[in-house]
Structure formats: C-alpha cells, structure tokens
Design brief:
Blueprint: H1 40-49, H2 53-66, H3 71-85, H4 97-101, H5 161-165, H6 180-198, H7 210-214, H8 217-229, H9 234-247, H10 253-265, H11 269-282, H12 286-298, H13 302-315, H14 320-332, H15 336-349, H16 354-366, H17 370-382, H18 388-400, H19 404-417, H20 420-437, H21 440-453, H22 458-471, H23 474-487, H24 493-505, H25 508-521, H26 526-541
Helix pairs in contact: 1-2, 1-3, 2-3, 2-6, 3-8, 8-9, 9-10, 10-11, 10-12, 11-12, 12-13, 12-14, 13-14, 14-15, 15-16, 16-17, 17-18, 18-19, 18-20, 20-21, 21-22, 22-23, 23-24, 24-25, 24-26, 25-26
Length: about 550
C-alpha cells in the first residue's frame, strides 16, 4: 500500500441560495367599498394596476351582477383572474414523473460528452470541474450555487422508475406529478373565485363559440390567457389559438408563440419548435427565444439551445435572462469556464442579480478562492438575501479564508434561520470545520446531530465512516460506507473508501468491485486507478 493513502472524506458542501420572492399584498374581497361619486369600473382598474387582483375581481363581479353583458367588466375580471394565477412557466420548468417515464422522444443512447445533458463534459475536458473539486448532485453534475427547478433531477436520456419517483434527496421530497402544479393552482383559483361571489367557474369554456371570439383579437387574447393559466386547459387554448391565427392570416407572431406554448404543455415538442421558429421569423422576441431554447433542452439538445441563446443575445445584448440561460446550460454541461463568463456578463448588466452572485461565489469557493467567494456572499447580504444558506456559505468562506472569529458567528446565524430541511447541512458543515481544526470529538458529535435531524444525509454518513475508521471501529465504518453506497451511487468517496478498507482487510474481490464503481462515478480519480493497479498485481500473483 502506497504511504500516505487515507480514507477520503466528502468535501464541505455549500448550500444553494434560494431567492426570496416578495409576497404581493392582495386586497380583501369581502370589504371592497366604493366611495361615493367614484366609478366602480375606474376603481377596479386602479386596483388592478396596483396588483390587488382579488379586490379588482370582486368589484368586477359586482358590476357583472348588475349588468351581465358589460364587456369592459368582463374583460377586466378575466385579466384579474389570469394575473392572480399567472406563473412564469419559462422559469418554473420541472419535469414530472410521467413526463420522464413516458417521454418517447428518441435520443442517442451513447452521446459524446458535452452534447447531452445526460452525459456532460468530463473532468478531463478543459474548463470543466471534476468530482474531486466540487460535490456532485444526484444527476451526475456539479452542484450549482443557486437552487432552481430542475437542478436536483437527472435530465436527458431514459429515466428509470426509481429515478423518476425519487426526490432531490431520498425521503425528504415527493416527485412532481405531471401537471401537478397546474392542477393545484387551478383549484386555488377556483376557490378564490367562488369566495369572491362568483358561485363557480367564471367562464364555462366548453360552451363557448371560439370562432366568434377568435374574430375579436382583444377579447381572444384575454380569453386565451384565462383558459391557459386559470382553467388550465391547453387543448381548448390550442383550439382558440389556431382559430385566431387563421383569422389573423397566419401573420401574428403573438398567436404563433402561444401555439408553441400549448404544444409544449401537451408534450408535442417538434410542433412547438415549428411554431416558435415561425414566431421568431415574424418578430424576434425574448420570450419566443427562451421558449425555443427550453424545447431543445427538453429534447436533450443543449448545443442547439446554446445556438438559440447566442442568436438572441446578438439581437438583445443587454437582456439578462438570455445570458443567464446560456450560463445555466453551460453549467448543466459542466463547462464551468463559459458559465462563469456568462454570469460575469450578467452581473455587468445587472449588479443585483442574485443567481449570478451565488453561482460565482460557489465557483470561487470550489476553485480554492474563498476570499473572492466571501466578497460575493457579503454582497448578497447587502442586497437583503438573509437566509440560512447564505450564512452557512459565509461561515465556510470565513473558515477557509482563516477568519475564524467570523466563522462561528456566521454558523450561529445559520442555525437560527435554519429549517428542518437545512439544519442537517449546517451541522454537517460544522463537523467539517471541526475536522479542519483537528477537533475530531466535536466533528463526531456534529455529524451525529446531522444524521439525527436528517436520517438520509449521505455526506454525514460518509465522513462518519472515516471517523469510525480512524477510531478503529472497522465494522461501523463499513456499515456507514455501505449505507452511503446504497443511498448515493453518484458519489465516488464511499466506493473508494469501501474499496480501500476491503483491500486492507484482504478482501481483494470486493475491493475490485467497489473500485470499479468508484471509477464509474469519477473516471479521473488517480487514487482509484492506483488501487486497481495494485489489485491487478495481486490477482496476477494468485
């Protein structure tokens, strides 16, 4: 055995920053009083402009009770209900279990590295990160610095049943079902409408003559948005969009883009691609470019998505969403160099962009530049992002930058703000700091606390196995390694540690099997290659 070999612990893990969305203050629908001498429709328009959609809906309902054929009130109520239920579906894009299992789009079974989200660039490629520099997620990619939909699941390829039904961490989350978010939002919208005095659905879509509405562009657009975002009926919305496109002489880019959105929700990605390309040919817009790139990402064609982003960036050079889309795709392909360039470019346009700050901070931390990462996290604190993740990451940066007095204070803030889902990560990182200062007793207790809070915290099991091995508790260490191997097959450390332990105990066959699995998770790991070389020598002597 080569001198200096030791069981390898998992590196410290930065928490992903979550953006805090400000809640919009909604008016009380039951207490809408119209001042004397004020037109109720004018007051409803004022409430709508103030984003008090519930109050605007209640005022419009009162007007419609008095005059059911008031088109202005009908239009305003439709817009209020739509805006109240509207979701930025370009950002909130996460595949459900049914979408992953029933995807019949043909993709390459063995794509080249860097051409598929299922097989990102390897650590040997220039500019990419490997598992030794940065922890890997369950999807096989380095963890991002910002938690957003889709970062915790495997994208591309054919998903297995277990992979589709598993959350980001075993036992702590349920999978998103197909259209589950839309169904829940629709139920909430219907309940709010009933409470406002509607007595049921505002518009019975199945009984409408869509051809009549398609000939009136203003009403047709409001009705389409209502059907798609409130009624959540993409088939009916597609029918209305097709009739309106025909009525407009196939020249209106807005209806083409909405046709593509309906096709995308129905899973007809190639039809959606045609509509988005046609919309871009008629009129270059940011939204159509983002939607087209999203289609290519769902089809597991990241390079085609990057081409769309690049073309849109030439036309809209100061649009941050396009630049960040490029950075996210490069992150998914494990091309850290280009991702960092795009994030820096986004910050040069918008110095308060939280996602770019968090991702750049994580990049500098994992490339042994904690001082630079510390500056970015302090900037996030100045912007008002004060949550457990930022304080936890700030503490780690302070520790590795040798600012020990600030490290413990930051951990205290993190523990005060931590929820049950984050508490295990904080205690794990406290144990990591304790290992760094040599206090193995504190490290052992911190890792035990992390496991007691989150029984599926695989990183704590991995490092606890290393500490048990140093204490001489071989069976406990092997049990911990086996636990991590079954729960997190994407991590290479437990397989390498188990292989090294089996090698020392003389179980060469088990050591060879575990080392092979470690190489599958991290093909460029030098110590695993050296261990396999020695195992082959032992086998040749038998």
């Amino acid at each position: 055995l080569r001198p200096g070999w030791f069981a390898q612990g998992v590196v410290a893990r930065l928490s992903r920053t979550r953006s805090a969305m400000a809640a919009t203050a909604l008016g009380d629908a039951a207490n809408v009083n119209v001042p004397e001498g004020v037109d109720p429709l004018f007051l409803a328009i004022t409430r709508f402009n103030r984003r008090e959609y519930t109050a605007a809906t209640a005022l419009c309902s009162q007007l419609l009770e008095a005059q059911p054929y008031d088109q202005a009130a009908w239009y305003l109520k439709t817009r209020s209900l739509t805006m109240d239920a509207w979701v930025d579906d370009v950002e909130v894009d996460e595949e459900g279990a049914a979408d992953m299992l029933l995807d019949d789009n043909a993709t390459a079974s063995m794509p080249r590295p860097g051409t598929s989200l299922a097989r990102p660039m390897t650590g040997a490629a220039p500019g990419s990160l490997n598992a030794g520099m940065r922890p890997m997620s369950s999807s096989g990619r380095p963890t991002t610095g910002f938690a957003r939909p889709g970062t915790g699941q495997s994208r591309g390829g054919t998903a297995s049943v277990n992979a589709a039904l598993a959350g980001a961490r075993p036992g702590t989350s349920r999978p998103m079902t197909s259209f589950g978010r839309l169904v829940r939002l629709g139920t909430a919208s219907l309940a709010a409408n009933t409470a406002a005095g509607g007595g049921g659905p505002f518009i019975l879509v199945d009984k409408l003559d869509l051809k009549r509405y398609a000939a009136r562009p203003a009403l047709a657009r409001a009705l389409f948005e209502y059907i798609l975002y409130v009624d959540h009926n993409p088939k009916k919305a597609l029918e209305l969009a097709a009739l309106a496109t025909q009525a407009a002489g196939f020249e209106d880019w807005w209806w083409k883009e909405r046709l593509g959105k309906c096709y995308f929700q129905l899973g007809l990605y190639r039809d959606a691609e045609k509509q988005f390309r046609s919309a871009l040919k008629s009129q270059e817009t940011v939204l159509a470019s983002l939607e087209l790139a999203r289609v290519f990402l769902r089809l597991d064609q990241p390079n085609a998505a990057l081409e769309v982003y690049a073309k849109a960036a030439d036309i809209f050079p100061v649009d941050v969403t396009i630049i960040v889309g490029q950075a996210r795709t490069c992150d998914a392909l494990n091309d850290a160099t280009k991702a960092v360039q795009h994030y820096k470019r986004a910050l040069s346009i918008d110095a308060t962009h939280v996602e770019s700050l968090a991702c750049l901070a994580a990049h500098h931390f994992y490339t042994d530049q904690p001082e630079l990462a510390l500056r970015f996290y302090r900037r996030l604190l100045q912007l008002g992002v004060r949550n457990c993740e930022v304080w936890n990451n700030l503490a780690l940066c302070c520790f590795y930058a040798s600012q020990y007095d600030l490290c413990l204070a930051a951990f205290e803030h993190a523990l005060q703000l931590a929820s049950d889902a984050d508490m295990g990560d904080v205690w794990y990182n406290i144990g990591q700091v304790a290992i760094g200062i040599g206090d193995l007793g504190l490290a052992y207790q911190a890792l035990k606390v992390a496991i007691s809070i989150d029984s599926n915290h695989v990183e704590s099991y991995a490092n606890l196995g290393v500490l048990e091995l140093r204490k001489g508790n071989v069976e406990s260490a092997r049990a911990n390694f086996n636990t991590v191997q079954s729960m997190a097959p994407y991590m290479f450390e437990p397989f390498f540690n188990g292989a090294l332990l089996a090698f020392k105990l003389g179980d060469f066959q088990e050591a060879h099997d575990l080392a092979t699995k470690a190489l599958e998770a991290y093909p460029e790991h030098h110590d695993t290659h050296e261990l396999l070389r020695q195992l082959r020598q032992q086998f040749s002597h038998l």
